Amino acid sequence: MSKVQTNKSSSFIGILSNLIKAAGPMGGRLRMSLILILLSSVFQGAAYTCFYPIFMNIGKGKPEQVWFYIWIALGFVVISAICRWIGQDYDYGGFSSQAQYDLRKRQGEKLREMPLEFLSNKRSGKWSAVISNNVDEVISYTITVSSLMMYGVITPISVGLMTFFFDWKIAIVILILFPVIIPLYRWRKPAYDRGMYYLNEVHSELNAESIEFIQGLPVLKASNGIERIVARLNKSIDKVREVQIFGHGKGSTPNLIITSALEVGMLVSLGLGILFVLKADSNMMVMTALMIIVIRFSELISSFVPMTMIFSLMEAGYKQITAMLTAPVLEVKTPQAKPTSYGIEFKEVDFYYEDAQEKTLSNINLSIAPKSIVALVGPSGSGKTTLARMIMRYADCQKGSISIGGVDITNLSQNDLLSMISVVFQEVYLFDDTIGNNIRMAKPTATQEEIIDAARRAQCHDFISQLPKGYDTPIGDMGNTLSGGERQRISIARALLKNSPIVILDEPTSSLDSLSELAVQRAIDELVKEKIVIIIAHRLSTVRGADKICVLEKGQIVEEGTHEALMIKQGKYCDLWEAEKQIEALF
User: Fold this and answer.
1) Where's the ABC transmembrane type-1 domain (predicted)?
2) Given CB 3.0 to 4.6 Å as the disulfide criterion, which of 119, 154, 184, 251 pairs with 41?
């Protein structure tokens, strides 16, 4: 097992502090609940301490004193129960669920603020694991696990300290366990943390592989590529098994040492108590009280080892959540108002991906006039898609600037910037919701009439109306119940409803049949009226009428002009055009 760098382990108090931070607005309520449970464990200890004077006075034949301490013990039990009841209301009263809700909302907001480049470098399954599993690990079990830890540690310590008021020898007998427990816990905790870190990582990887496998299953079956992906999934499953086996193997001996030390400590406590009785330093009734206390403590302390492991799991989950919430965001440098004109300007833009050997975009200078159509063409990997994405602030360029209406896009909020841009991708993503809600996503306040109007203009109202539930028809996960052309027209309806002045098209008709292409092209014609249109072209014949065609090669614009001007130039564009015509002639 290779070693990885993990963050420094936190103390028990440090972990609780982190869990309170994770609870966000509910952190104050969680802190109060933890304090109440702490008080409950102390009062529970006070109740157990009363066993000593009760049995001592039984031995001395003093019933009045016996009943006095019984009533005191009952009072402590009632106070302990009340504190525990109110403290656990954090779970039962819905505060824990609210904390999960708030944390997931914060994560959702964070995802919106992250650069798309950063998001695309991480597998969606890993983000899913952080939002789902890690939030559950950190929030759901905080009170339950903290309670068990406090009752297992604070209660016995409280009994030991309070017993000093009655008999310092018995107090030492009770407290003798803890000089053993604490060093063993501190010795073992870093190993727990490393183990849970490894386990968290491989579980996230398995989650990512599982989601990818399920989503890609139709394509995998059709392409006969399922064996390779199944092998990857099995490899992730094997990793989880190996980490679990490794953890059990490495942890068994230390866990046995800690458990044995606790058991030996309790036997020593009993042995010392017997020794005191034999030497007549204490009577048999005191010994009875001591045995009751030690046996009860054995039940509480027996949960110590598994609880420390669960705390390490919670800490590992917290670190994953923190890593997500502290990830880089697209900051607004000098906030400016949303522009009223929409010409786009690239000035000497350089962009490269982290760890890339070469620039993805190099010295890009490009002006796009309002209400014009610009096509980006070039071989695969030339930078067409990245250039179009940069307008949406996919990532910040390392050199140069990009502006809309004279305003640098780094000075615009994400909401303002994205409100000006509609995108129709080649691969359409629809959510597992109704058709109407998928269209409404572009404008949450849209009326039903506005949605229908957008659908009509996108050439999809007729087929939607023929569905059993019309616009209320669920479309299934990722829209898989619809054809490619239907999905594409719904995405165009969404863009029409948004009515943004800038439209980016990733040639949405390239993978459709002739009839679907015709319907989609009519929808696109409606969409692009009076707008800036940027087309990522895969077929040159579809952009022949563009106002400007930019030819990219190795991240640079090598040619620029209309179709006719570029053909006269007899350069790279002409070569691409001739190559496309030769391919068409073969079919």
Assistant:
1) 33-313
2) 154
Beta strands in 238-397 (DSSP E): 344-351, 361-368, 373-377
Asked if 217 contacts 230 with a C-beta cutoff of 8 angstroms, the reply is no
- Band of pLDDT at residue 12, cut at 50, 70 and 90: low
**Residue 68 has which token pair?**
């006095």
Beta bridge partners of residue 373, listed in sequence order: 533
In this structure, which amino acid lies at residue 519? A
Please say whether the dihedral angle defined by the alpha carbons of residues 407, 411, 412 and 417, taken in this order, is positive or negative: positive
- CA dist 550 and 557 (Å) reads 6
| Region of 381 on the Ramachandran plot (φ > 0 left; ψ -120 to 50 alpha; else beta) | left
Structural domains of the chain, ranges and CATH numbers in brackets: 12-325 (1.20.1560.10), 332-420+542-587 (3.40.50.300)
> Mapping DSSP to helix (H, G, I), strand (E, B) and coil, where does residue 404 land?
strand
- In the chain, the amino acid numbered 380 is S
Smallest CA-to-CA distance from 322 within 91, 33, 2, 15 is with 15
User: CB neighbours of 340 closer than 8 A, spacing ≥ 6?
Assistant: 405
What pLDDT, in 10s, does the model give residues 134-174?
777 778 778 888 888 788 778 888 887 887 887 777 777 66
* Residues 96/143, Cβ–Cβ less than 8 Å: yes
Instruction: Check pLDDT > 70 for residue 32.
Output: yes
37 neighbors 91 (Cβ within 8 angstroms): no
**Identity of residue 67:** W
- 504 sits in which H/E element: strand 502-505
Angle at which helix 63-87 crosses helix 142-163, to 10 degrees, equals 160
- Please provide the DSSP assignment of 207-225 as one string: HHHHHHHHHTHHHHHHHT-
